[in-house]
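Support case: user asked for a sample of complex input and structure output to validate their parser. Sending the pair below.
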Amino acid sequence: MNPLKSILLALGLSAAFITGGCSSVDQVTPTRGVYMLIDTSGTYTGELKKAQTIINFALAKLNPGDSFAVASINTGSFTERDIIDKVTFDDRPSMANAQKRQFRETIDKFVKGVHPSAYTDVTGGILQAIEYLDEKNPGHKTILVFSDLKEELKKGYVRNIPLQLNGVDVVALNVTKLHSDNVDPREYMNRLETWRKRVESGGGQWRVVNDLERLDNIMTDS
Amino acid sequence: MNLLDVVFIVPGHPAISVMSWIVILAVSLYLARSPAHRAITSLSEVLHYAFRIAAQSTSMAEGKLIQRNREVLLAAGREASERIIEREFDRVDATLRRDLADYPAMHRQLTEHILSIDEDYKRSTEVPPAPPAPPGWIKAIESVAKIPSSGDPMVANILSDINKSMVKAQNTAIEEYRKSSHERHIVLKHMMPHWRKLLQVLGQVDKNVNNLIDRSKTIDRHMQEYEQINKGTDRAVRMLSSSSITQFFIAAFVLAIAFGGAVINFHLIARPMSEMVGGTSQIMGFKTANIAALVIILVEIAMGLFLMESLRITRLFPVIGALDDKIRIRMVYITFAMLFSLASIEAGLAYMREILSQSDAALVAYLMENQHSQAAASQSRWITTAAQMGMGFILPFALTFVAIAMESFVQSLRTVLGIIGVGLLRAMEFMLRLLGNISRYFGIMLVHLYDLMIFAPLWIERRVKGADEPGREKTAQGDNGLGAAVIGGQS
């Protein structure tokens, strides 16, 4: 055989071998899944500007392949209808950037037209978040709860359900103090403690971030 | 019965018990002295010989490795010398072809110039023929001159006319002579350019000959080295070894620089590759985009190697070197085209990287509502874009030259590894010999320690034997010193 042909054949076979080998061991990079709950009840709607900042920060931090969803907390939050927008960013960075821009526009529209809800179903929102994150099954799961954590359920709604939060990082953001908390601070502390226990008993990790100047703490891997 | 009951033979008297035990042990050891000595000596000898055999094997392996290194070194040196001599002959061949191809023309030119000079010389020596004189003209003049004038004016006039004619003829002859000399001078003047041309041609010949002489001296020097290598002299081996180690370090340094270049190159194209192959998939725990970027760089290096091989600058692949010239040249074009394509792709990817960076910055500015600073920063972006594209295009070609360093590295690595191997084997041999000697003398020491523990029975024995046979005391003492006997036996 011609030596040149032999070399070209060897190169071709090597390339085929490498390509075949590569396709057989294809895996996916550990991605991140973030589900953010925004409290839209009562006077807390006044805090939505801060929520926008956090969403924008999260959008800037997330990478191609990551999943992000933002949902509102209202009377009954265990429903897909409360998801304002959700996205799994494209593999390609340029497409992912375009998706992020689109996402921000959707959130901006929502914030402009939001109506305060009468009740606050935080548990329902977290259950919905767990469902979403389980479905996406990312490497790191994070639930951001932008709320004062004061749960007010409409009569008939059952939310006394154990949370399955194995491997989920739950971050409470901007947990504002209510007037009643000012009267009796134990109420605020009890509220936080109750949520901490609920999350940790479900296998999750609980953190509270009230200083929104230091948003880097939100997205740290546990 | 517990252990203490066994230990304390005489209850309530620990000192007596201990003393009793010492006596019992001493007597027991004395009784077992000869077998114990033999056992200790045998063990130490076994260990000594085992280590010695191992050391000998290592020494043999070292010798073989030295021989092998020598062969490898000489073979590599022979090949390098052959290559150098071959190139020198090629140069001589090229010089001869270039200069001797012109030699017939030069020879013809020289001959023509010499002929011209010869002709000119001949012409310069030619004297114009004198005008034919009337026969008996001088005699007639003499006769007329002898006629007595006796105041005859007619005779005087004739003589005066003759005188005038003679002067006129003389002047004409001088004029002719001057004219002829002038012509010869002109001819000689015409010879000057020919002389100069001759000088120039001979100067060129001299230069060419000197050039050839220089080349021949170089070839002689290389041939001497080659002969020494062929003879396998120690000097040649030392010279090649030293040269090889120097080559190894220089090549390693160049490869380290090339590695740095490859890393920079990798960072230039890794991120934009995620636009092509996706940013999330992985292969064996590594990002596919990173692997793709790495593969591109490796392919570039491979193309560089093939290009250098095709150009016969390196000789890593004998198959390529043995290719027919036509195919080899074709391969040069193919590999260069591929390298050029890959360099262009890299430049494109570097541009893409800049676009992605700008897109990210714009997105962050949009999300943080800080578009003003972004606009200000983008004014000088073209500089980094151009620099990145330039680097993306140039680095693949720069990496091509890695082939030269790699060839030197691979070739010198064999020698260096051989030297390291010899060093390791030598160290191992030393350690084995040391262990062998330690085990031998450790055995001797144990024998002495054994005797030390039973010094009392031995002393008694010597006293008893001394009393019985005073003449044999010395012999008994000699027998007791087994270590000395062992040492004596070994020496």
